[in-house]
Structure formats: C-alpha cells, structure tokens
Amino acid sequence: MQQPNIIILGNGPVGAHIAASVNRCPRVVRFNRCADMPAHLGKRCTDLWLVGRGYQAHGLLQRPLTIPLEGLSQVMITDPNPHPLLHCFFKLIHRKGKVDYANQLFKMYGLHCKCERLSAQFRQSLLAHLLTLGPVIHRPYCPSSGTLAIAFYLSQFDKIHIAGFAFRGWKRHPWHLEKRYVDGLIAANKVVLLD
C-alpha cells in the first residue's frame, strides 16, 4: 500500500492495525474525545478537530485529552463563531449546551500551533451539496465533523486516506447522504479506505 500523505481517523471502530501507517504519516487528523484512541491506531496527531460548544466541549476542558500535544500543527473548531448577543444570553441563563468554549480550547490545546474555526459558509455549502444527493430522513443540522474534514482537506490534497467512518450517530447529521458522498469520492480514487 502507498504511504498516505494524510489520514483522517473517524470516530467509528477500526479493525485493522494501522499504527505504523499512522505514526509515519505527515498529517493525521483526529476528533474530540476520540483523539485518545487504542494502540492499534497509533499515537500521531497533527490536526485536532474539536467541537466548540456544549457539554462535549466543556468535557474536553474538564477532562483533557491525553494525546501528546507537541506534534500538533493545527486545532480546528468545527462550530462557526457564535452570535455575540445570543452567546451572552446563553451564558447568562447558564444554557451550557449552547455556550461556546472555543477560546478556552484554543488556550488548552493550541498554544503552539495554528488555531482556526470552520466558517458557517463552509458548513452550509457542504450541507447544500449533500442535500442534492437524495432525500433526507431527519431534518439535518450540519454535516458530521468527519465529512467536514474530508471536504476541507480535499482542497489541499489530491488523495486522502480514512479509517473509522461508520456513518452513524447523532440523527441531525445526514449520514446516508454523507456515505453516498464519500462513496463517490472513493470511486473517483480521491479517498482510500484503510480499514
């Protein structure tokens, strides 16, 4: 197998032992709590994608990830900037599920690397494209972090290797359309499955 230039590790199960490929890869993308992964998925993480809002983001501050941070080159927050007035209101009424923790996450995980946020336009553009691929089961809120990452890095790399993409979870992600999208990229030889 050709050595990948970038590997995106999703949150789903990975049966294959890919630690050697991961540890040799120049770019390795991991997500949220799943950045702390089993030994057969290697230790390397150059790009850490984190949700910026709600209980999961708060949990990343309360129980920090144990991955080595010295290899990080980028921390990406997948939520766009919050509306300033709404954000103040949510903090005032202690609506923790809506509070944005991006600045604290950048301070904890991104002190020595590039820190970015996905824009609302990028998320909406990908969602609009996914909605052209078929009917929806539930009204989608946004694409999953993994599918957002695939679309994001395809603008930088000719080919992406992925593992751990099960295309299931929170019902407000359009999983069946995301799978159709990624299957098309696999057929076009732009995405390669490692597992």
Protein model, in words:
This protein is of the alpha/beta class and 195 residues long. The protein is 34% helix and 14% strand. It is built from seven helices and seven strands. The protein has helices at 19-24, 54-62, 84-92, 102-109, 120-130, 145-154, 175-187; strands at residues 6-9, 27-31, 47-50, 74-77, 114-117, 160-163, 191-193. A seven-stranded parallel β-sheet has the order 5-4-3-2-1-6-7, with helices on both faces. Helix 1 links the parallel strand 1 and strand 2.
Average pLDDT level: 89
In the predicted model, the low-confidence regions spanning at least 5 consecutive residues are none
CA radius of gyration: 17 Å
Count of helical regions: 7
What kind of sheet is the major sheet?
A: 7 strands, parallel
Question: In angstroms, what separates the terminal alpha carbons?
Answer: 12 Å
Helicity level: 25-40%
Question: What is the H/E string?
Answer: EHEEHEHHEHHEHE
Topology, element by element:
Layout: E1 6-9, H1 19-24, E2 27-31, E3 47-50, H2 54-62, E4 74-77, H3 84-92, H4 102-109, E5 114-117, H5 120-130, H6 145-154, E6 160-163, H7 175-187, E7 191-193
Parallel strand pairs: 1-2, 1-6, 2-3, 3-4, 4-5, 6-7
Labels describing this entry:
alpha/beta; 7-stranded parallel β-sheet; 14% strand
